[in-house]
Amino acid sequence: xxxxxxxIVEWFDNKGYGFxxxxxxxxxxxxxxxxxxxxxxxxxxxDELELEVITGRQGRPAAKDVRLLxxxxxxxxxxxxxxxAAILLLVVQLIIILEKxxxxxxxxxxxxxxxxLYLYRYDKRAAQYNWPRISExxxxxxxxxGGIIGGLIGQARYRHKTSKxxxxxxxxxxxxxxxxxxxxxxxxxxx
Length: 191
What we know:
Helix 1 (71-97) crosses helix 3, helix 2 crosses helix 3 and helix 3 (136-158) crosses helix 4 (165-186). The chain is an alpha+beta fold. It folds into two domains: 3-68, CATH 2.40.50.140; 72-186, no CATH class. It starts with a strand and ends in a 5-residue tail after the last helix. Strands 3-2-1-4-5 form a five-stranded antiparallel sheet, with no helix packed on it. 52% of the residues lie in helices and 19% in strands.
């Protein structure tokens, strides 16, 4: 049978299965963790897949040989997140070492980063278990007000929001803003 594209509409991480839907389709396709490709053991709602549809139990459609379509993109994005978080942290420390700012700057980034990291973790679990979600604007607001390092780590660690292009573009804008402000601060131009 031909391979088709679908996206995950529900995933129960604790049970190891979920449901996908073909693009433009209405019928749900059962996806079990055992049908996932090598190196892939979990999915999240919204993941784009390539799969083969077979007849499963009770004649219902089931997935076979599932491959995550954005797997290569994730492999490229995630190291960037961690690298960027490390660079921002080093710049903050350098500003403090150069005595351009007090230790409070590091404390602010650390506290806001931990809050952001927690929020990404909670929202990822909320997506998995159908709990009330944290809005993207709330996540981005915490990142903007100093939580960007924790936000980048949270996105990489929990593989959360990394396949949403608009969210990643907004994250990049926040990173650029913090880089600019920290650079100007370190150069003594502002503050």
